[in-house]
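cron nightly-structures :: item 1 of 1
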Amino acid sequence: MSTAIVERRLRRSRRHAMLGGVIGGFAEYFDRDPTLLRVLYVLVSILSAAFPGILVYLVLWLLIPRAES
C-alpha cells in the first residue's frame, strides 16, 4: 500500500489574479471558486468596518510569495 504525500504551498495566483492574486491563491489552495471567496471576503470586510479587511489584504499581498509560471 503506497501513500503519496502531496505538498501544497500557498502562493499568490497568476491564473486567478484580479488585484495581487491573494484571494485567487487561497482559492487554488483550498480548491474553491475564486469568485465565491472574493464575495465572502468583501462581505466580511464590510461587516467588520471594511478597513481591517483592506489592511489584512495588503499585508497578505506582501507576505505571500507569487506563484511560479
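cron nightly-structures :: done
The mean pLDDT is 84.
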